[in-house]
């Protein structure tokens, strides 16, 4: 199989890139689900853009400062500036394509408040904004069907990368188990995040960092992997997302004593502080025995918003509460706890979405990344709500445009098919042939509990060391695991094993980065190093795999243009 | 609660027919049906195969038949679907099965593509900013836009069962989203297509789609809106639209031989099929003859019911409402 461009991932980033390319180049999208089932669709509360419909004094500059401050000053400011300036046009473009947005009294796109944003700038479609955006691009993909090949339910096995050039990918057709090589002049990853390694997570089953690990296994570095965002309002025990819009529209967070506890942590913005701060506040309340009935959850209380506003603006999360925890937020407060939500780290790229091969800025020829799998880095140490849909749209589009610019200088490279296939076949054969005794389910559960307990909202040296040794033990155990389904046809057990293998690989990188970073910044909070340390740690972590299998850590300075780091207070 | 999960198993490469397999499981507190099926897969039989992704009712992957009806497994509390200590699980209906609970969805996507499911705006008007749309206009497409394409409606659609060429409820709901979008200008072209055979008039109003729909899409309501919009635009020349008109004319008595507050069953078939559509009328003749033999032939001239005035008043009010 051969295409000019192969895009891995059919979420907002991948589809946005494809839309820039269809008609000009022969484009293929590989997705392990169907496009409408990508995890972008699960985003709820909105997409940020200073279109200034609601508050006329909003500007991209304000958006930039909020984002940089929200990132705890780890974001690269040139990238943030590009994103916030592109934001209004991006939203308008989505509206023109037919996105169904909620409308305000002036018939314009409605906007609501969100944590860490100093203006009401979250453009929304009720509480299913990701769904609305994803479906409009899915519609467009059908419009351009003639010029777009979709490999639905194909699973990415590896990136073919040699001597500084990305040449294609190895994929498996889930329906038949057939392993194939796709040759491409340009490879783009929009493969999403890695939140699935946590026990309490808002992420879909599909968010197993497949693209990130494929890049890492190929020898490329990953950036800022230790930065995982914990969302403050996951449904208790399920981790399923209750949109930040619930707080943006006025919801209260209440502890076991009936107090609005955010008063102690962010008195000026209360519940609308950025997510890292609210999650830590919740965890502190829980750890100090002020959870509801002393347990490990608190309440989000929406009752005072009234039935009409809830039904109008938050219908989906009301239904989620009813279906998953049996609570109707119109009548009762909803039990919630922090949930692993977003991966700030990922594949390092330039502003133009070209993938970096090292900390010195060497570019990989023919390889691009955008969205959650990439680290450009616009979110730094903590992402603001509504900036992820924006990032996926803006940098997905940008990746597409960059590929158009580069394509003349790219060509289909020779690939040693047998070599490439044999590497992945060996991995699969090992899983099939293992006479093992270890259950993959037990390994997965242990990994997730380990990550939540030892590398979660709060971290410290001894716990992180436990986390690291546990991950390594589990990696060994995996070699002795067993699976029952040895068939080729739609073998989801095999795919889950491969995904677990990926999770075991990147979890080590999260812990490693966290252990080294002896400071607290954004989503990475060390109880043994509670302060931010700009003198030593105002820099990005790069991890890469050495030929002997060991992990090398390097660091890259943060790009600071307009805003010097200051203490972050709300 | 210890429960028997009876799950349909099938491997399209090996098996000639599906079989039912029983698994015993203690349902953990608060577990969804998806949680339970996964526990069976992960702890009892790894070969059990299903699709799933978001587990929060937004991706539509885990639709399957539970006790005979389509549902999203992730959205269902397991204890709610237990009857006689048992839950019966099967793949979606109206699709070929690939393996266990995984079906071949290609017919579903192919159906969706038939209606050009993307916005066709007036390209000659340039908007510098977003196009304006009132809150009320946005509301017209709000319900249809919640569709997650899970195919539950397609699975349980009774028309789909007998006619695979029918567009199907999800596709028609998607069409409503564009016909009613004030930003779309291809209303005529869209309605032309929807009024052809296999379109809106093939729906038999059984309401299975809306009953099974896990979102606010409720396809039957959208199809009904499309029918009304079609009538407003003068699409009255299909058997389906004439059938509707026949009801409206028959009850209040627009023409001789109709009226009296009753549906005139002698009037409706020829009015729907066309009074001069001889082949079609001959086609239904056997039904009429059988009805006559069994004594079910309605009287040729309908009598007038008590409180006919009430019926007339209701029709009058309805006419005013439509204005």
Outline the fold blueprint.
The complex is a heterodimer of chains A (570) and B (323).
Chain A lengths: L1 E7 L3 H10 L5 E5 L15 E2 L11 H11 L6 H21 L13 E2 L9 E2 L5 H15 L4 E5 L1 E9 L2 E9 L5 E11 L20 H8 L4 E2 L4 E8 L9 H4 L3 E3 L7 H4 L9 H13 L10 E4 L5 H7 L1 H11 L8 E10 L3 E2 L5 E3 L6 E7 L4 E2 L11 H20 L10 H17 L4 E2 H15 L6 H19 L1 E2 L9 H25 L17 H4 L1 E7 L5 E7 L13
Parallel strand pairs in A: 1-2, 1-9, 2-6, 9-17, 15-18, 19-20
Antiparallel strand pairs in A: 3-5, 4-5, 7-8, 8-9, 10-21, 11-14, 12-13, 13-14, 16-17, 21-22
Helix pairs in contact in A: 1-4, 1-11, 2-3, 3-11, 5-15, 13-14, 13-15, 14-15
Chain B lengths: L1 E8 L9 E8 L6 H11 L19 E4 L2 E4 L13 E5 L6 E3 L2 E2 L2 H8 L21 H8 L9 H5 L1 H5 L6 H11 L7 H8 L13 H5 L6 H14 L6 H12 L17 H6 L4 H16 L14 H15 L1
Parallel strand pairs in B: 1-5
Antiparallel strand pairs in B: 1-2, 3-4, 3-5, 6-7
Highlighted features:
heterodimer; A: 570 residues; alpha/beta; Flavocytochrome C3, Chain A, domain 1; Methane Monooxygenase Hydroxylase, Chain G, domain 1; 4-stranded antiparallel β-sheet; 19% strand; globular; B: 323 residues; alpha+beta; Ubiquitin-like (UB roll); 3 domains; 5-stranded mixed β-sheet; two-stranded antiparallel ribbon; 13 helices; 38% helix
Structure in words:
The complex is a heterodimer of chains A (about 575) and B (about 325). With about 575 residues, chain A is an alpha/beta fold. Chain A is about 35% helix and about 20% strand. In chain A, strand 8 and strand 9 (about 180-190) form a beta hairpin. With about 325 residues, chain B is of the alpha+beta class. Chain B is built from 13 helices and seven strands. Chain B has helices spanning about 35-45, 105-115, 135-140, 150-155, 160, 170-180, 185-195, 210, 220-230, 240-250, 270-275, 280-295, 310-320, and strands at about 1-10, 20-25, 65, 70, 85-90, 95-100, 100-105. In chain B, the strands form two sheets. A five-stranded mixed β-sheet of chain B has the order 2-1-5-3-4. In chain B, strands 6-7 form a two-stranded antiparallel ribbon. The termini of chain B are far apart. The model of chain B has no long low-confidence stretch (mean pLDDT about 95). At the A-B interface, helix 3, helix 4 and helix 10 of A face helix 1, helix 2 and helix 3 of B.
